[in-house]
Design brief:
Layout lengths: L3 H14 L12 E9 L6 H8 L6 E2 L1 H13 L3 E11 L2 E10 L3 E3 L10 H11 L6 E3 L14 E2 L6 E2 L5
Parallel strand pairs: 1-4
Antiparallel strand pairs: 1-2, 3-4, 5-6, 7-8
């Protein structure tokens, strides 16, 4: 019985010396080679890719892809956003599948005495890469009623309440 102890000790020391391997992908991020967007009707692929914040040639993770999808969904310009990706020896290729929101309405500005419509549109374009003069209607979602085509400050945030028919 005592003769088996040295063999057991050698086995245990070798087993502990070998690092444990974890299942799953060996790499956590890959170089982003391309982003393609399927399902676009009005918007251009370059605009949508720019709005994701993803950088071609940079290392990206699945969390980055999830954040990009969240950003696109938060715009209200899409009713559905999904993604898939595939790894190649050179890096990762991402495909976004979108369904554009067909219920967008034109934005009108009312009672902005210090700014022209062009000033406001220019400001919106610098802050919202996908802005093209349309927005989703949020009629009925504000805390105070507002007239047609007016801006309401429900929850302290200006929002388009209704656009002309």
């Amino acid at each position: 019985m005592w003769s088996a102890v040295p063999s057991l000790l050698v086995f245990l020391s070798l087993a502990l010396a070998v690092p444990a391997q974890t299942p799953g992908k060996a790499r956590l991020s890959y170089k982003l080679l391309s982003v393609h967007v399927k399902g676009l009707e009005r918007l251009k692929e370059e605009q949508v890719v720019r709005a994701t914040g993803l950088q071609l040639g940079a290392d990206q993770t699945e969390k980055d892809f999830q954040e990009a999808v969240r950003k696109l969904g938060a715009t209200g310009l899409f009713t559905d956003v999904a993604y898939s990706y595939r790894y190649t020896p050179a890096g990762c290729e991402l495909e976004l599948r979108v369904a554009e929101n067909s219920k967008l309405v034109p934005i009108l500005f009312d009672n902005f005495v210090w700014f022209s419509d062009d000033d406001l549109i220019s400001l919106l374009r610098t802050r919202l890469p996908l802005f093209d003069g349309l927005s989703r209607s949020i009629c009925g979602r504000t805390s105070r009623p507002a007239g047609r085509g007016q801006i309401s400050r429900g929850a302290g945030i200006p929002a388009l309440v209704h656009a002309p028919a």
